[in-house]
Amino acid sequence: xxxxxxxxxxxxxxxxARTEGKTMGLVPTMGALHAGHASLVEVAxxxxxxxxxxxxxxxxxxxxxxxxxxxxxxxxxxxxxxRAHGVAAVFxxxxxxxxxxxxxxxxxxxxxxxxxxxxxxxxxxxxVTTVCAKLFNIVGPDVAFFGQKDAQQAVVIRRMVADLNxxxxxxxxxxxxEPDGLAVSSRNQYLNPQQRRDAAIIYQSLEKCRTLVEAxxxxxxxxxxxxxxxxxxxxxxxxxxxxxxxxxTLRPVDPLAGKVLVAIAAHLGxxxxxxxxxxxxx
Length: 282
Ligand code: PAF
Known about the structure:
By secondary structure, the chain is an alpha/beta fold. It folds into 2 domains: about 1-175, HUPs (Rossmann fold); about 185-275, Pantoate-beta-alanine ligase, C-terminal domain (Pantoate--beta-alanine Ligase, Chain: A,domain 2, 2-Layer Sandwich), CATH 3.30.1300. Helix content is about 40%, strand content about 20%. The protein has 10 helices and 9 strands. The chain has helices spanning about 5-20, 35-45, 75-85, 95-100, 115-120, 125-140, 150-165, 195-200, 200-215, 220-230; strands at about 1-5, 25-30, 50-55, 90, 145, 170-175, 235-245, 260-270, 270-280. The strands form 2 sheets. Strands 1-4-3-2-5-6 form a 6-stranded parallel β-sheet, sandwiched between helices. It has a 3-stranded antiparallel β-sheet with strand order 7-8-9, with helices on one face. Helix 9 packs antiparallel against helix 10. The longest helix is centred in the middle third of the chain and has 16 residues, at about 125-140. It starts with a strand and ends with a strand. It binds pantoate. Pantoate (PAF) binds near residues 28, 29, 132 and 150. Pantoate binds near residues 29, 58, 128, 132 and 150.
């Protein structure tokens, strides 16, 4: 497995694989790899001959006061996971390699980036789309793989790729969960044991929504109130939003109909967690 720190190295690796007729898969990550990332790599390996994982804690998607400095960076462990899952090459650049000069050019997706996480994290999605556009240009994958856990990110990246006619396919893979339902996330490791137990309430609240919808409920405000009540069982948890939106436009839907995204962002102490489920309501 090649570990490339420079754009030149990874481009040479990809070019060589291309001359061998291989198809190219990219799994963009910020490292601190876990079972969710491993599942993305597995899907990528089933689809593509040559899988590249990028590991880059992207400073442009963190706002002031967010966890850029403390974000875990266990590179050796990450490389082990990549080796164990048959990754062909890891691209792990430094910030200076990715952003060598004053940053004047951005890729911005409008409208889809303002609701949900966009409200509390202005500039976050601009950083995500810009770094993804750069990674797509550097690696040139046929397919890039992302997790459904970051549902808004997935919608935004798909839209960027469509609007800019970028020549790749975006594949979104299901959220991987712990046995108690908590979505696997690199940020779960910030939680203390009590917070870790409490965090399971987020998925219970999402499941509450599913149960209500299956029982025929369609009124968004009523459903959201019951989801909030479920979250309130953990007083230490502070809900940032509980939203039911159209899965494509991310606009609120009421009454519930069609493909909807049910999404929660919540804080446990200093840790911000997000999760969602998708429902197809006929
Ligand atoms: O989902 C992530 O880990 C990041 O937002 C991504 C897509 C790798 C861009 O930095």
